[in-house]
Amino acid sequence: MALFIHLSTHFLLSLIIGVVLSFYFGSPFYMILSAILAGFLIDVDHLIDYFLTFKKFNLKRFLKSQQFTISNRVIKIFHSWELVILFLIISYLFLYNPLIQGIFISASLSMFIHLLSDCIINREPIIFYFLLYRYKNNFLIDNIENKEAILEKK
Length: 154
What we know:
Layout: H1 3-25, H2 28-39, H3 45-53, H4 59-63, H5 66-71, H6 81-93, H7 98-122, H8 131-136, H9 141-144, H10 147-153
Helix pairs in contact: 1-2, 1-7, 2-7, 6-7
């Protein structure tokens, strides 16, 4: 899938989640902002992986996801089911404050949809997006996923 379409899908889904939740929690600005930050800007972790591998930015190399194939690692710290669960727990702790609760539910739901769509789009198993699973396998592609699959997807 073309990068523009992939990113547009994440942005649109996040926007929809923020708008829908604003009908329940109010505060459209905060619901939409938290949904977009969590569901769209989650991909900033690709840059973190990139700069852990390369010191100088090269757009062509970045768009080909060469940081993963050259380092043989996929860290993607924000692509994590654990964060989805953590945000849901935090939202429960703020039952007395609907705005804060809504922000964390919006973020959690948006991240959930992002990760689920990544599983579908990238044909990766759900377990791949558990940070603890990747950590347990030293974030090594060879331990968690076939390197050829990553090259084929990009």
